[in-house]
Amino acid sequence: MKLFYRRFGEGRPLIILHGLFGLSDNWFSIGKLLAQNYCVVIPDLRNHGQSPHSSIFDYAAMSDDISELMDDLGFQSATLIGHSMGGKVVMQFALTHPERTDGLIVVDMSMRQYYDQHIQTDIMDAMMAIDFEQVDSRNAVSGLLKHSIPDEKVRLFIMKNLYRKTRTHLGWRPDLEDIYQNIDHVFESLSAGNAYEGASLFISGAASDYILDSDVPQLLHYFPKAIFRVVTDAGHWVHADNPDGFLKEVTAFLNKNL
What mean pLDDT do residues 209-219 have? Predict the structure, then answer.
């Protein structure tokens, strides 16, 4: 699949992947800063942003998309950064294509299965309930989402997916139907064979529970050179909650390993 992407800077390739309901715009500021030293590529994953839609939505397919993107860009290898769902994509890619992975940065995600899906399905239900024949302004959409998504930060994050399809009609960029049908794949554990022996950094937010102490043995089994860092004053969206703390850990890792 030919993914839409944004590209900044020159130098060694650095690919950044967003999470569920995200898009490349979420990483624009971080990407521009990292582009001072690297060639930064930020794609929209399949069924997100401006990339094509597909009824196939699992980690094997998304990993293959990154391989195809690298082929199209002429990258023999790259360092990969992935947040949340994107973190599982980059882990899958590194385990499948270790020879193409210069380094790995996983942001607030482990390999295990995650069982608590109701938050994400509730968000999708709220998004799909919007009747764009009746609603034609961002404020109106936000008002309708407020009951189902009371957290303003999460609601603003979701609203980034809203765009104007025509002069008079709004719409959602994600392929909500196909994501909904495949939501079990998003939360499933990764199936892995051989370990990735390259440099790996796992960053978590101090207020997040996406990486638990009990996850560490499995992560070290498949990523034996992994180091773990916790960013203070941050939850699951580490890069948004504490960008300075996040960049400090990322740049220290890149400077040491690239």
Answer: 97
| C-alpha to C-alpha distance for 65 and 43, rounded to whole angstroms | 10
Answer yes or no: 177 catalytic. Answer: yes
Compute the C-alpha angle 47/185/179, nearest 5°.
30
Catalytic site residue 236?
yes
Catalytic residue among 18, 48, 83, 236: 236
Is residue 185 among the annotated active site residues?
Answer: no
Structure confidence by residue, pLDDT tens digits, 91-130: 999 999 999 999 999 999 999 999 878 889 999 999 999 9
The catalytic position among 24, 84, 200, 204 is 84
Domain ranges of the chain: 5-113+188-257, 118-181
What fold does the segment set 5-113+188-257 form as a domain? Rossmann fold (3.40.50)
Give the span between the Cα atoms of 236 and 209, in whole angstroms. 8
Annotated catalytic residue, options 177, 189, 191, 221: 177
Output the pTM of the full model.
0.97
What CA dihedral angle connects 146, 147, 152 and 155, to 10 degrees? -60
